[in-house]
Amino acid sequence: MKIRCTWLGIVFLAAASSAAAQVRGTGDLGIVIERAEGSLQVLDTTEQVSLGRVEGLGDLSHASAVYSRDGRYAYVFGRDGGLSKVDLLTMRVVKRVLQAGNSIGGAISQDGKIVVAQNYVPGGVKLFSADTLDLLAEIPASYGSSGQRSKVVGLADAPGKRFVFSLFEGGEIWLVNASDPHNPTVRKFPAGKQPYDGLVTPDGRWYLAGLYGEDGLSLLDLWHPERGTRRILQNYRGTDEKLPVYKMPHLRGWAVAGRQAFIPAIGRHEVLVVDTETWELTGRIAVAGQPVFVVARPDGRQAWVNFAFPDNGNVQVIDTESMSIVRTLEPGRAVLHMEFTPRGEAVWISARDDNKVVVYDTASFKRVAQISADNPSGIFFTVRAGRIGF
Fold first, then answer.
1. Are 63 and 80 contacting, i.e. CB atoms less than 8 angstroms apart?
2. 350-353 contacts, C-beta under 8 A, 24 or more apart
3. Domain 99-245: homologous superfamily in CATH
4. More exposed terminus of the chain, fewer Cβ within 10 Å: N or C?
């Protein structure tokens, strides 16, 4: 039998071959926010390069992002209230909505179908369809007898299509069940004075809210919310004078390594070590300045710490076995964020005032790559798509 090849067949085969060559997964992708330009860069953590830039995302001065379950879409929350759905493979904005006047982050549901934005102005949260970004429901953060609205902080997803967040002025923790996303239900708990951020532990059981207005933290058991909140680490500062706070710590960056949590202390040059079974303070680690993020390497052996001004050009590495500082690095001026690759062989660090992202090998502490970026801040990798509370 003779095989006859036409020009049309050749063109078809060439096109099919080209398309196949462009097919790729998303597991080693991520983004870095370029806060001054309202843009982001799509990153390849395997080749340690930038793949391109996506623009037109509004005010990203305090931006964060969550991912669809397949890691293809990043949902970017801008300070101007913008919520943008970005396709990492085509590097384009699929849809963008202005949903509030001042927004500070968001979360995505356990099943990946609901995206929630937390807002300062007007205070509250809004639930959106992850597919279309159509509004599903709004929950005003009203508190007190006069019904004033509070800034919402510390929003995180929790198992069971639930979300949990804190009211800064309201001093409360709210637990939302979004099983019916058009009619979510809310349970309210006392938190303490001025909760400023919060997190859900990696196993999805505990929600912790850090308190700015008083020493300590507020703890809610998400397995047994009927037990209410309880206060932990009360008076951890003791009688020592509180230092001026130049930048609020971010609790979402707490390091949980094994049964130990490594927590940035407000107004102190310390990282607190807490047993996550008893929630008792078990140690203090002196560090170079006021810690902002304390982030655990995925295997839990290291915790990396960055700092507020004037020490924000440094990063320190804690060995979680010896509870000691094993390395001090100087990635650049104004280090804002750190993100580990999925298995932790490298960490990516943004240095805003030097307009660069620096990549370190976490075993040797050698600088292995550098990428130019315009005022880089948050770095978010797609591995977050499979993690609770991220």
1. no
2. 350/32, 350/376, 350/377, 350/378, 350/379, 351/313, 351/376, 352/35, 352/376, 352/377
3. YVTN repeat-like/Quinoprotein amine dehydrogenase (2.130.10.10)
4. N
Residues 44/29, Cβ–Cβ less than 8 Å: yes
Phi, psi of 266 (to 5 degrees): -70, 130
User: Measured between alpha carbons, how far is 137 from 148 in angstroms, rounded to an integer?
Assistant: 19
pTM of the full predicted structure?
Answer: 0.92
Return d(Cα 273, Cα 264) in angstroms, integer: 9
DSSP secondary structure code for residue 151 in this structure:
P
